Structures are given as C-alpha cells and as structure tokens.
Amino acid sequence: MSLHIPFDNTYARLPGAFHAAQAPQPVAAPRLIAFNADLARILGLPEDAGKDPELAEIFAGNRLPEGAQPLAQLYSGHQFGQYNPQLGDGRAVLLGEVVGTDGLRRDIQLKGSGRTPFSRGGDGRAWLGPVLREYVVSEAMAALGIPTTRALAAVETGEPVYRERALPGAVLTRVASSHLRVGTFQVFAARGQTAELKRLTHYAIDRQYPQAEGPMGLLAAVRDAQARLVAQWMAVGFIHGVMNTDNCAISGETIDYGPCAFMDVYHPETVFSSIDRMGRYAYSNQPEIAVWNLAQLATALIQQIEDKQAAVEEATEIVHAMPELMQQHWLRRFRAKIGLTTEEDDDLALISDLLTRMAQNQADFTNTFRALLTGRARDQFTDPAAFDAWEVEWQARLAREPDPREVMAAANPAVIPRNHRIEQMIAAAVEGDHAPFHRLNAVLARPFEDDTEAADLRRPPAPDEVVPATFCGT
Ligand code: AMP
Ligand code: MG
Prior knowledge:
Layout: E1 19-21, E2 31-35, H1 37-43, H2 55-60, E3 71-73, E4 77-79, E5 82-84, E6 92-99, E7 105-111, E8 126-127, H3 128-143, E9 150-162, E10 166-176, H4 182-190, H5 194-208, H6 214-236, E11 238-239, E12 261-262, H7 286-302, H8 308-320, H9 322-337, H10 347-360, H11 365-371, H12 384-398, H13 404-411, H14 419-430, H15 435-444, H16 455-458
Antiparallel strand pairs: 1-3, 2-9, 4-5, 6-7, 7-10, 8-10, 9-10, 11-12
C-alpha cells in the first residue's frame, strides 16, 4: 500500500519571488525512527500509515509523495540583533500543505533534507541529536498546551554528517500552521519589493488571521499571539535560545528548536545556548525580545502603507501595548501556578517574592511549583525556612480561593523534558539505542500526571549530569 497525503498547496502558487523549487536530496539508507500516528490522524493521513515501510523513504526525501511541490522558502532576519539580508530555508524543504480533519491548514516540511539555493556555506543536513531534541521538545510543548510546530517523523539517513566529528545524519518532518516568519516580511520590505510585501500580507491574513484588517490588524494579531506564547514559555521555565526574527513565527507557534532548554534550578538570567555569549536570549529577557521582534515586523509592514506617519503612529501604539499584554498573560499563568484564579492587588508581589526566594535557594523551577500540591515545596530550598516564611502569606491568600488544588494541578507540570535527559537520550541514540527517545516521548505526552514509573525523569540533574551549554548543533 502507499501513503496518500492529501496535499493542497497554496505557498507554491505564490510568485517565484517567494521561494525556490527544490526537491529533497536522496540519502543512502533511510531508517524510520519515529512516526507520530496521533499527529498523522489530525492531518488526515491514513490510520495504518505508521505500518507502511515506505514511510522511511518518504520522510527521508527519497521518494516524493504524489501532490508534493517541494520548495525552499525565502526569508531574512535579525540574528542576535544584526540584520542578515538573506537567510531562507538552507536545509529544509516544504513538501506541501494539508487541511487536517480539524479543518486547519498545515505545512509539512522536511528539515535536514539537503542543500537549497539558500544554503550559503552549509551542507543542508542535520545530525541525529538536534532532530531528536526537536522531536521530543516540540511534542512535549504540544502536550503542555503551548503553541508549537510539531514532529511527524524522524528518519536516520544512513549517511554521516560532519560537524566537529562525523555524526549520524537525520531528517525531521516538521508540521506547522505555516512557516511564515517575521523575517519573511523583512526580506521584501528591506528590498523595497512592495508588491510582494502586500501579497505576503494578504496571504498571511487569509491563512492565519482571517479576521484581521490590513497590515496593522495583522500586526496586532501577531502581537496577541506572541504575547500569549512567551508568557506560556515563562510559566514552564522554557528558554528558546535563539529568538532571532527568522525564528519568530507569525502564527505564535514556537519554532526552530535549537539550543533550547527548560530550566532546572530557577534563575532569571539562565542561558543555555553556547552561541549566546551576551545572554541576549536569557530566560528573563524573552518578553523584551518578543517586543523587539514585533517592532521589526512593524517596521517591515509599514513599508507598504502610503501614509507613513499615520502608520508609524498606529504601529507604535500596537507595539507599545505588548509589554502590558504579556504581563497580563504572565500574571494570570503565575497566579494559577500558586492556585489563584481570583485577582488581588498584592498577587504580583506574592509571586515575585516566591521567585526571589527560589532564585536565592537554588530551587528547581518545575518541582517547586509541582510540590506546592503535595506540601513538599520547602524541600526544594537550600534554606527551607525561606519557603516557610512565604508560605504563611500564601496560605492566608489561598483561604480566599475556591479550588486552588485543581488550578495548580493543571498549571504546574510534573514532568518536563530536562536537558540532561535529552543529552542522555541523544548519546544513547547515537549508539543505536532508541529506547530512551521513545520513553521520553511516552512520558512527556502526559506532563500533568504523577507517573511513579517516571520518577527518574522528574529529578533534577545530579551535579555530574548538569549540561552547562546546549550547542546549536546544526
Ligand atoms: P537556524 O539557526 O537553525 O534558525 O538557521 C539559521 C539559518 O541558517 C537558516 O537560514 C537555516 O536554513 C540555515 N542553516 C542552518 N544550518 C544549516 C545547514 N547545515 N546547511 C545549510 N543551511 C543551514
Ligand atoms: Mg531558523
């Protein structure tokens, strides 16, 4: 039997300025590591698709499914604050789009599928480590209820990829509500291609925000989605690591998992990425960077508007409203983390006080909040008395809440993809053992359950397990 993907491609129909036709480059010996049957079902792929031996061929790029129109998308972007006039899919091709059983349109993209016209110096490939990292973390994010691209398949290529050493090559099949990035708008704005910018704006509105009116309506919609997203990251201790404008999806989905990580010990200045030497994308900087990125989108969108002065004024107002919006989302989520659904003026001070005490006492972010349910949170603090003092205030506040336990249980995950477990999983996979990868996926699919079988995955790293930096590892 043969896998039928019901493609319905709109991006391929946009003019040539938007993309370059590019087939994936075949690989030597594809072997399927994972196929996400739950996601396949949502996409409307056949129920038994997972059993089909041709999946490895298709998701390695060796065989093009009928109806695919593979292409690499053009974009640019600010990388660590510096504008790079041309990026684009350098190691990815969009196979096409499908409208799922839920009525939503999604891109199906192969990542690590070989060189494209936008590869610049790169080999167009990915190695197994980042492919499995993205698979695990993006699926964990989805299970946490955080907007994200998803992983449909992971395939080993049977070919080496040369980084500092030879490593096994792999291809990830990524699914996204679109791959439109802030940088997709920037490239046409920077080049003065106003017709293309207008076309893109219409396309983006039609595809993602049909209720939005005009470029400024789109800007406001992206702001709302990004504000919500970043607040959600903050609430689970997630650090994206490379919030460049080319890695910022206008859908408000988390995209481009590189040197990302969840914090273990809480500290606002935590940075994992080995390439982020200045800490630009540190945990606590993420809200500010999201505003900066939105300002870049505003600058790009304005280029298509005749009355520049009015547009600048309107865009400024939209962008300036973002911090307050993000703060509202943040406060709602952190209120829930300590069991609050009602609002009182002193809540922010109560939450901030807990976070300060956590930072001073090397408290594990995830486990401290989860332990508020079990009464064991004080054990997370180097000086438990620091928690006790806070707890008195907290209990007084909780007395005015209807159902704090239920609220906390739904807001505080029991398990997150801890960085050291991901590194251990990758090390095993490089040796051919995929069991840790499959186990992580299975446990992380139910992050709010106290699975006693998974106690080891909930534990913070032992001193010798701590991962000091996550390498971009492309
Ligand atoms: P990233 O940091 O993964 O978001 O990538 C930034 C840019 O570099 C994008 O245009 C990528 O397509 C490109 N890129 C990253 N790795 C490679 C590679 N191995 N070969 C070609 N292009 C790459
Ligand atoms: Mg990227």
